[in-house]
Amino acid sequence: MEDTTKKINGHSLLRKKKLQDMYANVSQQMYARNRELAETNKTLSLLKTIDALVLESHASLKVVCQHITDAIAQATDYPFVGLLTRASNSEDEMRLFGWSGKDWLGGNKPEALNLPIHLKTYQDWLENPSVTSTISIKDVQPSQIAENLHLKTSDVERIFQAVPIKSVLIIKLKVRRRIVGLLVVGFLVDKDEIAESDTVLLDSLGDSIGVALDNKLLFEQNQNVLKQLQESNNKLVALDEAKDDFVSMASHQLRTPLTAIKGNISMVLDGDAGDVTEVQRKLLTQTSYSTQRMIYIIADLLNVSRLRTGKFVIDAEPVDLVKLITEEMDQLEFAAASKSLKLNFKKPDKITPILLDNAKTRQIIMNFVDNAIYYTPAGKNITIELTENKSTIEFRVIDEGIGVPKSEQHHLFTKFYRAANARKARPDGTGLGLFMAKKVIIAQGGAVIFDSKEGKGSTFGFMFSKNKLAVPENFEKKAPQAEFLS
Amino acid sequence: MAQATKSDSQIFSEIAVKIIESQESIIGPIALQQAKKVSGLSLDWSHKKVDIKSNSPKVIDSLVNQYKVLFGDMAVETCRDVSRQLVSQLPANERPQTLNI
């Protein structure tokens, strides 16, 4: 009986011991797992803080670096954390943009830490594939560090006196096979005593900080490029203004003698200087036409300049478009005939006068017909059509010329634009005629008519509302008002 | 350049705070309950303040052992990791035995 009781007690003790061992084992396993989780949690929380700092910050690279080192120092007890990075405008040097060691060094960064580190000096070390390196301070002489960093030995000694760090862990922040910065962490223990959890944490931070710095650097580089572009743009605008001023002045100066030339030719053609032979008449007519073209080109240049300065005006008066078109066609008759082109003018017997800028509308008509003559092969037809409908008056110049390629049609009315086939056919064009024509038509409340098929021909014209431009009963011509056009 | 010097008693208090904090992040409120059982340790945890009355190295050793009894050597390792930098600032003969590497 006694033996049995002893046996049972022995069993119970054994079971109790087993259970206790099992309990201790489970507790330790649970502890180990929880410790891993706590470390992961610490790393993740720090990574999240750094990500938030970089993503949400509009501050400069320097400020972001400072925030990152502050965040690391706050979450750990490292006596010194430094973040060196390339400045966005420098490829061969790094600077300590963020640092934390205020407990030891006070609030002000020592002057020695403001100096840049020249990367060329460290090329071999930087190209070494290992990401992390640990230095034991006792193994390096302050004079050696001072020489490498171009510092004074006394400055280095002072820093080491103030911060009694025994080892330094340097992590190369690599992104896209390029070192964007260095994370430098000082420890109060020797390099062999640095906890594994610290190296694991700093390794993980290194990857994240590298990407963050790279993004920030790229952003700052973009900002620098943008700034340079803005400066270049400002210079170009100033140059453009100077050019416009010159063109405006030169055009004014050219216009006066040209008007005199045209007037004199006209007088000679009218017989004011005696009889004119047929040959002379042909030559003078051609001269007159070329002079007129030159006047219109100068007018275009002047109007472009006026558009920019807001001095472009529409000087409206009642215009009989039949008369106006006929007069312009008379001037172009000779040019058309010299290319064996036939100009057919389809017009109504009578047309309602509307309020238009006479000179500018003439110029549009001249431009459309002149273009048709230039771009239509010899022997073809050009039809000039003026129609009056119930509510509109429409003008069209229909040619059988080279046409405008489909892909270039949307550019056609922009400043200085000329279609490739037009440039080939007529290298001397300014690219201002159609641009100004559209501006003038729209400024008068009209709409541009345009249709073209490459190789088949084009139609250029305008359409005006009769109601909108109706001449009031007691019309009196007023001084022109400036119209500001974009 | 201002160097902040800490007294040994300050360092011991900071070591105790670091140890309790780290254990709390792993085992939760039990860490605090265990710390309260250590004699010579006075806690004001709402302000994260710990006072050690006397014989600081021994009190810290007791604190570390409190966790060791429950969770084994890994708990000691945790205490060593978090206090490493602070322990290194103490004179060698003043360092708690459990934390001396």
Plain-language structure description:
The complex is a heterodimer of chains A (486) and B (101). In chain A, 52% of the residues lie in helices and 19% in strands. The N and C termini of chain A lie far apart (116 Å). The radius of gyration of chain A is 43 Å and the shape is elongated. Chain A has twelve helices and 15 strands. Chain B has 101 residues and is mostly helical. Chain B has one domain (8-99). Chain B contains four helices and two strands. Chain B has helices spanning 8-27, 30-36, 56-71, 73-87; strands at residues 41-44, 49-52. In chain B, helix 1 (8-27) runs antiparallel to helix 2, helix 1 (8-27) runs parallel beside helix 3 and helix 3 packs antiparallel against helix 4 (73-87). The longest helix of chain B has 20 residues, at 8-27. The A-B interface holds A 24, 27-28, 31-32, 34-35, 37-38, 41-42, 77-79, 103-106, 110, 158-159, 161-164, 166, 187-189, 193-195, 197-198 and B 1-4, 18, 22, 25-27, 70-72, 74-75, 78, 80-82, 84-86, 88-89, 101.
